[in-house]
Amino acid sequence: MIVTDIFDKGGIIVWILAGYSFIALSILFERLIRFTFMGRPGKQAEQHLLKALRECQPDTVINKMRGPEGRLLQGMLQASKEGIMDLNRVAIRLGSFELNKMEKGFRTLSFLGNTAPLLGLLGTIIGMIKAFMVIEQAGGQVDAQALAGGIWEAMLTTGVGLAVAIPVLLLLHLLESAADKRAHSMRNYASLMLEYFPRNNSPSLTEESEASHHRSGVSHAV
Known about the structure:
Elements: H1 3-10, H2 12-37, H3 45-54, H4 59-62, H5 67-81, H6 87-102, H7 106-137, H8 144-196, H9 205-209, E1 214-215, E2 218-219
Antiparallel strand pairs: 1-2
């Protein structure tokens, strides 16, 4: 079976699923590029930061850090210099902002991956309805080969829907895992800063952040 046959037999449902694939691939490609070139602190960054904090010279390390962790610490350091007392909330605000940037497009991918099989199933049901209408019009005297052909054409949309959904959901899971790892990294660096820049007795970063961000039923935040 060639591609033109799939579009010809599948009808409008297959064309919609093709649009799903184009949108999903565009988002995935953009996200993969962003995660690849977003930068990261480095293997020894935590040790260097601890040393700089103990020596009361965090600027020397923080200003050189890359990625969301670096921007988070730079924002916290700037807030401390400006005399802001509640660095917990500064960390939560900046961390949530960085995390939202990393998760851009995730909800769209989730929607496409979850609705593609349903759309394919809809196409199959419509095709089966048409097949049985033909049987009824023929008075039950239908060639078995022709009936089988009509059924596989109806099942085609379900196969296409699953072919679209499975890779999209798999890659979405990988991207979510990468975002979770960076969120954990930001939490770790923010905690180090808070240990050396105590301001008040407000709730801890971890406790307050757990309710500050929600994605697809899984709570996580900086």
